[in-house]
Amino acid sequence: MAEAAPRGMTDWIASRARWRIGEIVFWLACLLPLLPAQYLPSFLQPFWIFDRYLQLLSQIAITALFAISLDLILGYAGVVSLGHAAFFGLGAYAAGLISKFWFTDPLLGLLCSALLAGALGYISSFVILRFHGLALIMITLGLGQLLAEAANSASWLTGGADALQGIRAGKIFGVFEFDIYGQTAYIYALVVTFLVFLVARRITNSPFGMSIRGIRDNSRRMLAIGAPNQQHLRRVFTIAAAMAGVAGALLTQTTQTCSLETLNFQRSADVLVILILGGVGRLYGAMAGAIIYMIARDIFSDVNPQYWYFWIGLLLIAVVRYMPDGLLGGLSFLGSKLRRS
Amino acid sequence: MLTSFISVLYDGFAYGMLLFVLSVGLSVTLGMMNFVNLAHCAFAMLGGYVTVTMINHLGWPFLATLPIAFLAAAVASVLLERTLYRSLYGRSDLDHCLLTIGIVFVSVAGAAYIFGTLQQPIQVPSWLRGTWVVGNLTFGVYRAFLIVVGLALAAALIVSLEYTRFGATVRAAVDNQRMARGLGIDVDRVFMLTFALGSGLAGLGGALAIEIVGLDHSFALHYLIYVLIVVSVGGMGSIWGSFVAAVVLGVSDMAGKYWLPQLGSFLIYLVMVGILMWRPLGLFGKR
Questions:
Q1: Which residues of chain B have a CB within 8 Å of the CB of A149?
Q2: pTM, two decimal places
Q3: Tell me, what's the ipTM?
Q4: Mapping DSSP to helix (H, G, I), strand (E, B) and coil, where does residue B133 land?
Q5: Strands, DSSP E only, in chain B?
Q6: A317 and B106 in contact by Cβ < 8 A?
Q7: Considering Cα of A282, then A284, then A290, then A293, what sign does the dihedral take?
């Protein structure tokens, strides 16, 4: 269809897809933590703490990836899900079980997990996309809980509450081993997150991404101009599920653990909160939310894990009340105001 | 087999009555304003803590604390409605969910800060404790009390909704809000009263629940899922629907715990998903 579109339209889509300087700086900055401290000027060295936090940074990358996958269906397609952890957990367990019983190559494991989670997403999309409003929230929550309870009962396969035992870690490309400092794990998580981000960015700037936004904003009009709404939604739901599966598989492979926590309701709720805090419907919102949330949790939960949710709750109330587009949305609103004045 | 069947039915029905009292207010306010109030169980928790405090620190009798629990939850809900909820009525379901789940998080952390994380013990009066033994069946007295209270409340709510002037305005506002406004009904005021009544009932439910399921700081989050299941299965805005859904859920949860404990809460989610697939609007939902 792109050939038939008028010239102004294709230009507009292309201009949205152009890389901005801020984006390039952001991704380059993600490489900074890998810089060993001894290459820095000596007065900076005591402050260079990133290499001690590489594990946290890999977790942030994985969470950002998971949030991006939710953003595709929630922010762009407008499908609310409280059971997105189902795909994350499926990917996590698939990667763990594949390495335990079959082969240890991480990339192949990642691919298999993505395919499995995508298949589950495709099948469940037939059920989920029939619902709207409260029923949609409840059906996604119910299906997610069903999978979590099933994994809990099938302890002969999943290890149940004791977590999956016997996960083996292979070398990436047969060369790079996962080290105890988490350097390989961070590079691996970062690269995979970046590649999936590229895919998501391509999708959201494509005519397909535009149609999905059209369905979110006015599904009847999209039907009237001949868009196959259900087919589009099913496709984006499948893609998002596969991405969530990749995030789950990454978590298993980089930490060599896989527990029921990957499937539980808390994870679905947390990723929703992360996305809302960062800003729905913008991919960098998902990233910003993941970075802020994970770092804040790391700091606050050392103090007292119970009161951590007090601050998250207050933040949620403030964001919904005063910044409906999330922190990034609020920032860009401020930016455009400043530029205009 | 028969004896266990009867005791599952009895315990499940009592549990269902508890769920009904906890969730009926949410169902009606959701049907009227389309406002998804996930903080409903936070009001229930408030009622529970009011009762615990009054019994343990002020020495009030259990029954006398129940109206206070009702009032405290009702007043708190009106305050929140005035300050926070009102500005969000035009916004999406998701915004409602997020704002109210924020309130839940704050209330859970606040309860942990004030009351600690332990289960709160209470003493119900001696005539509510103990069991009746009929043949080889035992019936808990407190559960009978719950069933009586739940049935009386359901009857009172249905009768007042059907036969009083206020009930008629509530039904009008649920069925067609714009038309009701056009006829001169002050929907905002009706909504505020209904909201206070529903949250008050939740507070009462929270107080009644302590003896059966206990009370700790995570109550607002833990029972939220049960309440939402009741509302979505029963259909929004329907008291009778909430009643049926609460009984179905209570009995199936009890049956699952009794006969298939290894499945955990698998059964209630299965029941919910099954009913929603069959009727996406819930058993008695209209839209």
A1: 263-266, 269
A2: 0.85
A3: 0.82
A4: strand
A5: 131-134, 137-140
A6: yes
A7: negative
